[in-house]
From TrEMBL:
This is trypsin. It catalyses: Preferential cleavage: Arg-|-Xaa, Lys-|-Xaa. It comes from Astyanax mexicanus (Blind cave fish). It is an enzyme of class 3 (hydrolase). Residues 41-265 form the Peptidase S1 domain. InterPro entries: Peptidase_S1_PA, Peptidase_S1_PA_chymotrypsin, Peptidase_S1A, Serine_Proteases_S1, Trypsin_dom, TRYPSIN_HIS, TRYPSIN_SER.
Amino acid sequence: MISGFSPLMGLSGRWRDMAHIWSAAFLFLTFIIRETLPQRIIGGQEVVPYSIKYQASLQQDRNHYCGGILIHPQWVLSAAHCWRPSNIIQVVLSEHNLAVEDGFEQVFNVSKIIVNPAFNSKTYSSDIMMIKLSRPAMLNAYVQPASLPDSDTSPLDSRTTCTVSGWGVTRIYTFYLSPVLRAVDVDFIYNCNVYLASRVNEFMMCAGSRFGGKDSCQGDSGGPLVCNGNLEGIVSWGIGCANPYYPGVYTRVRSFGKWINTVINADSQA
Ligand SMILES: *[C@@H]1O[C@H](CO)[C@@H](O)[C@H](O)[C@H]1NC(C)=O
């Protein structure tokens, strides 16, 4: 009944994967849990406008479809499954309410997109790509690159709380994006293959809430998961959203630090 268990459907992206059919029991349980955890992306809350300075919105025809993360004045990270041809998308920084143009937005065309060559669209392994903006962003009080973990950053442990942000749906069974940027705190989950039956490899990591109710969801793909001030994850996939048994799965940024630097250095020398 939970279609997410089939090899392909459960692995589709958080944006495309909208058509899960759940058992009535799961539906009931998830709603109960959500309703008993108020204020609580799914289970999150609106952020202070422009406080997540590295958050990007990927848009086509001015419609948000994925998140992204500014990591350098001219480079944005996102999930590879958010790829669309570079000439039809734009990147927006300093965005808060998608429905309102408040004058702080910085809108960019894209000069190139580099998808990680190991990306596997069936397993979502190496779900990471780099987007080069057509011009450098103007760094200011609202726009700053995220910091990435380096080899000296201590490993995450099971007590680590992370924050994920995005304009994704706020209710599990709707198609409506949040107009405003939202964030939610989720726990880093060390060995999530227990829950996800070996679909999680060393290029992925998991975060969620033991009780469900807090998660990233459709429309959050490509966005940041930040732990202890560092960008550790990119929203990638999940089985449904906010389900207590299935934590959200993120691209593990630590696995790609070298690749990211190589791409930026090679480009600046070209
Ligand atoms: C993006 O490219 C289009 C078409 O080339 C151009 O009309 C537009 O002004 C550009 N926008 C920005 C923000 O650079």
